[in-house]
């Protein structure tokens, strides 16, 4: 079971309350919670792949931390980044490895 997400409300609750509620209640509260369709582990792998491919490294860092909590191993993350390097780009892989090395060394 995924942990209740409050990042939307914590960071944008007063400034953008509808977006914050959609983030916390719909994206994380409903979509991520559908573990009968995809496990949190698999969702983390998919999300990290999409964020790396787009070069969205601040979000990738946050989701790599979530991925680690969801049981994505260092070996799996290294394989994910290596595989995507050929599809998303070598420089993106270097950046992603920098994040993964920090997150998976803790």
UniProtKB/TrEMBL annotation:
One of its GO terms (molecular function) is peroxiredoxin activity. Pfam families: CMD. InterPro entries: 4CMD/NDH-1_regulator, AhpD-like, CMD-like. It comes from the Bacteria. Residues 17-101 form the Carboxymuconolactone decarboxylase-like domain. This is 4-carboxymuconolactone decarboxylase. It comes from Secundilactobacillus mixtipabuli.
């Amino acid at each position: 079971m995924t942990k209740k997400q409050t990042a939307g409300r914590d960071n944008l609750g007063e400034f953008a309350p509808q977006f914050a509620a959609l983030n916390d209640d719909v994206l994380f509260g409903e979509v991520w919670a559908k573990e009968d369709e995809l496990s949190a582990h698999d969702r983390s792998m998919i999300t990290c792949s999409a964020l790396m491919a787009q070069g969205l490294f601040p979000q990738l860092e946050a989701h790599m931390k979530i991925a680690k909590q969801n049981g994505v191993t260092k070996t799996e993350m290294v394989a994910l980044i290596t595989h995507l390097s050929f599809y998303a780009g070598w420089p993106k892989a270097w950046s992603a490895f920098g994040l993964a090395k920090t997150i998976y060394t803790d």
